[in-house]
Amino acid sequence: MVDRLANSEANTRRISIVENCFGAAGQPLTIPGRVLIGEGVLTKLCRKKPKARQFFLFNDILVYGNIVIQKKKYNKQHIIPLENVTIDSIQDEGDLRNGWLIKTPTKSFAVYAATATEKSEWMNHINKCVSDLLSKSGKTPSNEHAAVWVPDSEATVCMRCQKAKFTPVNRRHHCRKCGFVVCGPCSEKRFLLPSQSSKPVRICDFCYDLLSTGEMTACQSTRSDSYSQSPKSPLNDVSDDDDDEDSSD
Asked: FYVE-type domain: from which residue to which, for each copy (predicted)?
């Protein structure tokens, strides 16, 4: 089915429409063999709060962006290679329902569909595309992924020292290794995480100690599912668009 659509006029036209919606600021999306599988609006759990984002699933990449005018204009384009993606279902909690984690070595985050059926369709199609890509390339599924950032609203005090209260002056920061919300004094160190950045990034003292001694597995296991283990339930750039501003923090 996908191979048959790859060179079809209808597929080329659909991809061209997506390119036009992102405008000159977006990356070209039309390449030989690429097929637009589907599209839709998903709620992305951002640093500050959940926000609606337009997602496009292709047979080799996942693209999403901010909605400026529905079906007409999007910005802040993000492109995720599917061969690096793994997904995990999230249990429903309160108003956040029908969700799953999208995990990659560079960025991981949670998204939510409007219905359980929609969630199932998205997850099935993503898994099928990833499986087909890996089968063709002979590569193995990625076993490394960036931590899912705990939303700011989930932490009123530092998740490491459990003492520092967050205020407009005492700002929240995120450890790039475990995803915890931490205070400045608990995250003064930097460490090079090549999959996330070419420069050393902010990490908490706990992760720094583990990384420095080579105990990386232990560090990863502390937050292997960072969102599902957040305090109420016991994400091409490291930062996201306007959701995760202050990428250095």
From this structure: 152-212
